Amino acid sequence: MHKALESFLKMESVGRWPNILAGGGNLFACLFAHERQLTLIHLPFHQERVGSVVVEAMRSRSAPVFYGDIRSHERVPLCFSTFIEYCLCLLENRDGRRDAFLESQKHSLAVSDTDQALLFGEAPQQFYLAQVPILNFENKEHKQLECLGEDIQTPVPLETKSLASVNLWMNSMNSRSSTHYDPHHNLLCIVSGCKEVTLWPPSATPYLYPLPLYGEASNHSSVTLEEPNLSVYPRAACLNGFSQKVVLHAGDALFIPEGWFHQVDSEAVTIAVNFWWRSMTISGMLEHMDAYYLRRILKRLTDKEMNKMLHFPSSSMDKTMTCTTSQPKDAYRDHGEQRTSRNCGNGTSNDELRSKVMLQDLEPCASQSLNELISLVHDRLNPSKPTGLEYTDNSSAKENDEMNKRKEDLCSINDDPVANLILTLHPLTIRSVFLAMANNFPRTLEALVLHVLTPVGSEILTRKFEEMDQLISGEDQNEFYRIFHGVFDDQSAAMDVLLNGKELVARQAFENVLDQYMGINLDEPKPAAK
Question: In this structure, are residues 463 and 312 in contact, taking their beta carbons and an 8 Å threshold?
Answer without folding.
Answer: yes
